[in-house]
Write a structure and sequence with these properties.
By secondary structure, the chain is an all-alpha fold. Helices cover 76% and strands 0% of the residues. The protein has a single domain, classed as Up-down Bundle (Growth Hormone, Chain: A). It contains 14 helices and no strands. The longest helix has 42 residues. It is a multi-pass membrane protein.
């Protein structure tokens, strides 16, 4: 047995225990609705439950298509097509450039034009549509509802990613081709597209929002926080993409230094990363599961995530053995599990509804610009890979300071 499978097994056991403990505290995830509504609102509660289930069903299919490709993207280019690391970086840059251009238009066309905006749509339109739907049902200002959905999305995202990592490993083993996971993703995208076209209502936005438009004084307090969220988004999510590009090379390099001739189980490694991310999502859910829903709690979670992320990337550089680097990257992935639901909640509260999709799209631009800049400096050396992670770690440490400075408590109803 390889050294990576026991880690995956241990993580899955921990997740199973946490899942069972969480299940005992609530008979079903959707019962969070009953905590924030009266018995007289049963009909609305049922409508919200239906809305939430419909959203998560389609979100799951869309995210599965993305995750199926995650574990073998770099390996496909490197091993199957025999491309150099600089050429692979150029291909990644092309993808991020198209996503960056798409981000400028995603806010305007997110609900109208899907072609050509795939990644940007996935990370902007889905979330904006869900928040708009909650607002339409009258639950947009309920902290428990938004936090519950974001937490569930992150946990669900993790479990789907784990399954996709294992499925992709199995497909590659059965077909002896690293192209098979990419073909399999089509079988997720087709039903997702059909369900969106037949079950989702068009999001035209809300025309009359005058009563909720922030005052100039409130805007002056909001923009430093929005800037901070944008900074954190740019460099933590940017670091995530750089890690996605780099982790295969980092582990292969350390593995070769140990004179190990066996090929690395990329699907198992990817599933372990996703298990770590799911565990991080559970940590966030537990932290905010007792009515502790506030910008202060979420900003604190973001600070913890930044600390773990910076530490994980730095340890991946400092440690020499492949298995130790793997564990360090698992720590980085755990930080992402804490970060994603926390930052989604913060953005859902701070960003004005009438500009949500546009601002969400604009927030993707610095992410793509940062990743493109770093990848443009890529060289096919161990030093280049390590330098990338060190730079990311330093930028994340700055994010901790900004979050501590600007993301202190801000009462939602004081907007």
């Amino acid at each position: 047995m390889d050294a990576y499978t026991p880690t995956l097994v241990a993580l899955l056991i921990i997740l199973a225990v946490v899942f069972l403990c969480r299940s005992k505290s609530r008979s079903a995830p959707l019962l969070i609705i009953t905590q924030v509504e009266n018995e007289e609102l049963d009909t609305v509660g049922d409508e919200l439950a239906t809305f939430r289930a419909r959203y998560l069903q389609i979100y799951s299919l869309a995210i599965a298509a993305d995750w199926l490709q995650g574990s073998f993207t770099y390996s496909l280019y490197r091993n199957t097509h025999q491309l150099t690391e600089t050429t692979i970086a150029s291909l990644f840059i092309t993808g991020f450039l198209s996503a960056g251009i798409g981000a400028f238009f995603a806010g305007t066309f997110a609900d109208r034009v899907l072609s050509g905006l795939g990644t940007t749509i996935l990370f902007t339109a889905f979330e904006a549509w869900m928040i708009a739907g909650c607002n339409r049902l009258g639950f947009g200002d309920e902290d428990g509802i938004l936090n519950s959905i974001f937490g569930t999305m992150s946990v669900l995202n993790g479990f789907i990613a784990i399954a996709c990592g294992l499925v992709s490993q199995l497909l590659v083993k059965l077909t002896s081709s690293e192209k098979s996971p990419f073909i399999a993703s089509i079988f997720c995208l087709v039903p997702a597209s059909y369900l969106i076209s037949t079950t989702w209502a068009e999001n035209y936005g809300q025309r009359n929002l005058s009563s909720r438009v922030p005052s100039d004084e409130t805007l002056s307090r909001l923009w430093p926080r929005i800037f901070t969220v944008t900074y954190v988004t740019a460099f933590l999510e940017g670091s995530m993409y750089i890690m996605v590009f780099s982790w295969t090379g980092i582990l292969i390099s350390a593995d070769k230094a140990s004179n190990n001739s066996a090929s690395l189980p990329f699907g198992i490694i990817f599933a372990s990363f996703m298990s770590s991310m799911t565990l991080g999502s559970y940590i966030f859910e537990i932290e905010t599961g007792n009515g502790n829903h506030s910008l202060q709690a979420s900003s604190h979670a973001i600070q913890i995530a930044l600390s773990f992320a910076a530490s994980g990337l730095l340890l991946a550089v400092m440690l020499e053995r492949a298995i130790f680097r793997f564990w360090a990257l698992c720590l980085f992935e755990l930080s992402l599990g804490i970060y994603f639901p926390a930052v989604a909640y913060v953005k859902g509260i701070l960003v004005p509804e009438e500009h949500r999709a546009k601002i969400y799209g604009a927030m993707r631009v610095p992410v793509n610009a940062f990743v493109m800049f770093v990848l443009s400096k890529v060289e096919d050396t161990d030093e280049s890979r390590e330098d990338r992670l060190v730079v990311c770690s330093g930028l994340l440490l700055i994010g901790i300071v900004l979050t501590a400075r600007y993301m202190h408590a801000l009462e939602v109803r004081g907007h």
